[in-house]
């Protein structure tokens, strides 16, 4: 359970080797020891993250999760809850893709849609059902400002995030009054392994800053957070720009 001070006792990381997911676990572990369920592909990175979090005081459980081949989302959630309730679940699934490749490769587009939208939506549905049954819980969905308005340089990625964002925003409304809530997190450019090698965009942030926003947002019972917060205003303006002007922008 989340205690009176907002600290959590258990944390499920879906896509648990993402820099933001790991930073979130580190941030929560600054407050108290907790059970962390790490759902990710079986890679050396997963083993390293599990070892690190154990060293920081977590009781770590490891599950195999592959967004490209998600056969039983309900089974994954049930396994994550086998040793206790899931207080907070961070859905940190996502790939950026290469727009130049995606433009001419329908199969690559289908894979990106599966990873960035289909798998998170399926996991979100399973989490909502489980948390309703346990009577509490918070689902944290890592969206992106890219989903606010898809731009020409990454419209495939942006469209998948738009769908994912809409799904979890609607899920949060559907869960209102059940004891379960959804926090949609919309960061801008994050300096992480996913963006390594890319030119840094304006208002770039860090996994640690996003993690801090997640912890604060969960504690405050918020339904949406922007990282950095100024993006709420920036994207409101960009959303209403005339299309010919928006098309010319390289941001």
Task: Tell me what the structure shows.
This protein is α/β, with parallel strands linked by helices and 251 residues long. Helix content is 45%, strand content 16%. Strand 2 (35-40), helix 2 (44-55) and strand 3 form a beta-alpha-beta unit. The chain is globular and about 55 Å long.
Q: How much helix, percentage-wise, in residues?
A: 40-55%
Residue fraction in strands: 15-25%
Task: Write out the strand line-up for the largest beta sheet, numbering strands in chain order.
Answer: 3-2-1-4-5-6-7
Number of strands: 7
Gyration radius (Cα, Å) is 17 Å
Return the average pLDDT rounded to an integer. 87
Written as H for each helix and E for each strand, in order along the chain, the element string is EHEHEHEHHEHEHEHH
Separate helix tally? 9
Q: Structural class, judged by helices and strands?
A: alpha/beta
Low-pLDDT segments: none
> In one word, what is the shape?
globular
Instruction: Report the span from N to C terminus.
Output: 41 Å
Largest sheet: 7 strands, parallel
């Amino acid at each position: 359970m989340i205690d009176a001070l907002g600290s959590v006792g258990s944390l499920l990381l879906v896509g648990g080797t993402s820099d933001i997911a790991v930073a979130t676990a580190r941030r929560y572990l600054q407050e108290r020891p907790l059970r962390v369920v790490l759902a990710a592909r079986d890679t050396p990175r997963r083993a390293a993250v599990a070892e690190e979090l154990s060293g920081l005081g977590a009781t770590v459980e490891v599950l195999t999760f592959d967004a490209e081949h998600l056969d039983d989302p309900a089974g994954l959630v049930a396994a994550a809850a086998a040793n206790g309730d899931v207080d907070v679940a961070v859905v940190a699934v996502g790939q950026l893709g290469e727009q130049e490749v995606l433009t001419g490769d329908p199969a690559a587009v289908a894979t990106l849609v599966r990873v960035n939208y289909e798998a998170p939506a399926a996991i979100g549905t399973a989490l909502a059902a489980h948390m309703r049954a346990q009577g509490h819980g918070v689902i944290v969905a890592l969206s992106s400002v890219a989903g606010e308005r898809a731009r020409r340089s990454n419209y495939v990625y942006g469209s998948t995030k738009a769908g994912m964002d809409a799904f979890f925003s609607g899920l949060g409304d559907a869960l209102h009054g059940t004891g379960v809530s959804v926090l949609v997190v919309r960061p801008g450019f994050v300096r992480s392994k996913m963006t390594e090698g890319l030119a840094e965009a304006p208002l770039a942030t860090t996994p640690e800053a996003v993690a801090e926003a997640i912890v604060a947002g969960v504690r405050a019972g918020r339904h949406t957070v922007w990282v950095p917060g100024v993006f709420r205003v920036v994207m409101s303006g960009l959303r209403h720009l005339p299309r010919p002007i928006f098309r010319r922008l390289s941001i």
